[in-house]
Amino acid sequence: MVLDVRRESEFNTEHVVGARNFPLDFINRNMNQLNRDEPCLVHCAGGYRSVIAISILQARGFDQLINVETGFKGIKESGLVPVTEYTEQLTEL
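The structure corresponding to this sequence follows.
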């Protein structure tokens, strides 16, 4: 599973095909929706929020987490992973 911890508006602008939006802002409220036994690649825009998300999840018993250090920017620049077509961001939420 690919977890994108950016805000919903960032995710809606462009994201990894098949990724699940799981905003860091709501991680405590929504973590019961995750399977602790499923490996997850976790990313944000540049790598900072994903580190925080992984730290929170690990403190709550998740241990199959991999941080994408380069974030979405690095994923997109690599050209190795399909991403959705860019759509202009309409809100900061």
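Helices lie at 8-13, 27-30, 48-59, 71-78.
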